[in-house]
Fold:
Amino acid sequence: DVVMTQFPLSLPVTLGQPASISCRSSQSLVHSDGNTYLNWFQQRPGQSPRRLIYKVSNRDSGVPDRFSGSGSGTDFTLKISRVEAADVGVYYCMQGTHWSYTFGQGTKLEIK
Amino acid sequence: EVQLVESGGGLVQPGGSLRLSCVASGFTFSTYWMSWVRQAPGKGLEWVANINHDGGEKYFVDSVKGRFTISRDNAKNSLYLQMSSLRAEDTAVYYCARDRYMVRGHVTSDSTFDIWGQGTVVTVSS
Structure:
């Protein structure tokens, strides 16, 4: 299975400041169809996960443009331009290129 | 409104069985693959199983192969997870999630895990 490694695992951020989460895969996530199936999810405390970003950099409907995704191959990044209180939670990367789907360990974002 | 609603969780003894259900609404269920994803207490997300749009293809994470089965009833917009020989390590919140979809005969992964249910809690304990 493809191993997804996130860092940092804990991310204290001051309100209004930027935040960045990295995700590295154990093998390339470029699919034979040319797409890279790397998604990002947010899980607020006590809630179900919510998809934020699909195929590396595409924001889901309703996701603020403060969130952006980038990367290629095996290295990917989720950036939040200005952290708000509503952003507190755990963020997961996930690959859908190779069977079986695998998630990163999660990065816990908290307000400093 | 696009929605997934799970049910069927509960407390079961080790070695026991449980059947989870997920009812979909607000989208054409029969054109989507569907998945089950679980989250053990205080832990991360783990994909468990998925099924293609017509039930002809099914895939499982290694840790549940031979113990869990996945099925669907497109007439009822419903997804199921039959769990048997349950172990303490199967204790988790189980989510159903929308997966890939069929468009003009081709599978596209743009929709993978774009919609999640609220989850149902499974506790395996004596």
User: Anything to note?
Assistant: The radius of gyration of chain A is 13 Å. Chain A has a mean pLDDT of 97. The interface with chain B takes residues 31, 35, 37, 39, 41, 43, 48-51, 54-55, 60, 90, 92, 94, 96, 99-106 of chain A (CB under 8 Å).
